[in-house]
Target: 3-isopropylmalate dehydrogenase
Amino acid sequence: MKIAVLPGDGIGPEIINEAVKVLDALGESFELETAQVGGAGYAAHGHPLPEGTLKLAKAADAVLFGAVGDYQYDSLERALRPEQAILGLRKELGLFANLRPAILYPELAGASTLKPEVVSGLDILIIRELTGDIYFGKPRGVRECPDGPFAGQREGFDTMRYAEGEIRRIAHVAFQAARKRDSRVTSVDKANVLETFQFWRDIVTDVHKEYPDVELEHMYVDNAAMQLVRAPKKFDVLVTGNMFGDILSDAAAMLTGSIGMLPSASLDANSKGLYEPSHGSAPDIAGKGVANPLATILSAAMMLRFTFGKTEQADRIENAVKRVLAQGLRTPDIHEPGSTKVGTKEMGDAVVAALA
Ligand code: IPM
Ligand code: MN
Model:
């Protein structure tokens, strides 16, 4: 059970510390090795995804990832920016299936910006394709505009594309995940405008023939964004491309009160995975000891479940998190009148204590 631990930048190291503390407390024989990534990778080795870090990640069974990005690296050329580390890891490790569950813990119903009756009991799973789409499509760049009223000026351009096999495999992931839940899939696209997503819709419809027991509905992404804030509980599994999934998963995160609560798993075709909180590096609060470590701790639980098949230990962590929330412990992002404000370390310690 080899785990590559990549803390990254901003609050990354603080939240990863707490997740490692929880893993250590389980009494399993994990082999943890830490390496630098993101801005920290650039500062130490001149590249956001240093060779040694990539090698370690490839050799490990799972990667536990913090977050990358910091203001000081914003002016670097694109290839050297911290974000390239996570994009490179996803591509190099073939992590095409990103699972982002949005679950509202009953204790946090009041922390959501939406009315409690709209979100209470929320349990949806967003499945985002992670290695294709406009994120990786080529060609891309800045060139001379070839035609139209702006011909001759500079223009920026990217390429949206999805191969049939890419759509098929993520559709299979979605239908299979749905079978373990409420057997409903909503495929989100923009088939009314984009060729890529008309093709997406056609292929998902075809894969669906193998899953007659699962209900499939297609929805345009603009409507999906609206439904997510109007009646989010109507969804069960939502599957979509890389770009739409990026945007919709942030929106879904806020339904649950705080993005600081949301874990994620990025999986390849086997059981290798990268596990990271859905949130970013939050440089504005880095080093202050106030970041919420629960998304990262819950990501470690997903790692135990998906990569190592340790269901009981995963349940133990998830139950411990529920217990500390029930005790009223809250980091500032989820703090409400009447709850007990704690910092990153206290929250991690409380989870460890609640494991017993
Ligand atoms: C995410 C992040 C990344 C993405 C960034 C950091 C490249 O926003 O994991 O959602 O856009 O995929
Ligand atoms: Mn994002």
In short: The first helix runs from residue 12 to 24. Residues 187 and 221 are 9 Å apart (CA to CA).
